[in-house]
Amino acid sequence: MKIRNWMTPNPLTVTPETLLMDAKKLMATNNIRRLPVVDKKGRLVGLLTRHLIIEAMPSGATTLSVHELHYLLEKLTVGEVMQKDPLTVGPDDLVQNVILLGHQKGIGAFPVVEGDKLMGIVTESEIFNAVMGLIAPREGTSLIVLQDVQLSKEVGATSRIASVIEKRGVPVEAIFTMPHRTRAGNNVYIRARTPHAANLMADLDAAGFRVVPIPA
Q1: Which of 52, 155, 172, 200 is buried most deeply by CB count within 10 Å?
Q2: What keywords are assigned to this protein (predicted)?
């Protein structure tokens, strides 16, 4: 599954010159927590988050008067607060790779860029929905899990899986891979468009894959 199928395309954006309080209102109005920051040519230059806005607010221990605080906040721009050069992903990146990157870096959202053009933004909730859309039970489908598939060591493993599926003639809605947390190899999740996947599972087992039966 590719990020382009799960991202929010053409997201709301701000520029470095946008006043921070205007960006804050934009987030509140649209119930969003992040805004990509683009320059006048539409190129991504930063990312503004609700957390960064909160951090920019003066603390209660300040000695400034209410009038002085209000004046300073009105002058503050997005460019002074934003995260510069945020990590990005591409529209054709695989969802599972983006999940791993987010876990490794502790990041909950990524701007999606192609070349120097902002294509969208993808958040942890959208990625969660993508994964749940695959593994959640659905009428008329079956979930097949292959354990410990050595994708990095066995050249052609993915092609062998596809070949077995093609020979059986079972339509597939999605195939999703994730590294196992404690063992070598990947788990491969196959959402087959059939409620009766026993024959396909037997074929995959005969092809040397470790098939784990999962209720549809």
Answers
A1: 200
A2: CBS domain
Q: Taking the model in full, what pTM does it have?
A: 0.68
Q: Which residues contact 50 (CB under 8 A, 6 or more apart)?
A: 27, 33, 34
Tokens of 83: 């995260």
Contacts of 76 (CB under 8 A, 6+ apart): 19, 20, 21, 56
- Spell out the residues 6+ positions from residue 98 whose beta carbon is closer than 8 angstroms to its own: 3, 89, 110, 122, 127
Using CA atoms, how far residue 84 sits from 13, 81, 93, 105, 148, in Å, is 14, 9, 22, 16, 39
Give CATH for domain 137-213.
Answer: 3.30.70.260
Q: CB–CB of 19/26 below 8 Å?
A: no
Using the predicted structure, report yes or no on whether residue 111 has a pLDDT greater than 90. Answer: yes
Of 188, 127, 126, residue with least CA distance to 154: 188
Residue spans per domain, the chain:
3-129, 137-213
Residue-wise pLDDT tens digits, 2-19: 899 889 999 999 999 999
pLDDT of 65 > 90? The answer is: no
pLDDT (0 to 100) of residue 167: 94
Taking CA atoms, 123 is separated from 35, 126, 131, 174, 186, in Å, by 11, 5, 13, 20, 24
Structure tokens at 185: 């190899």
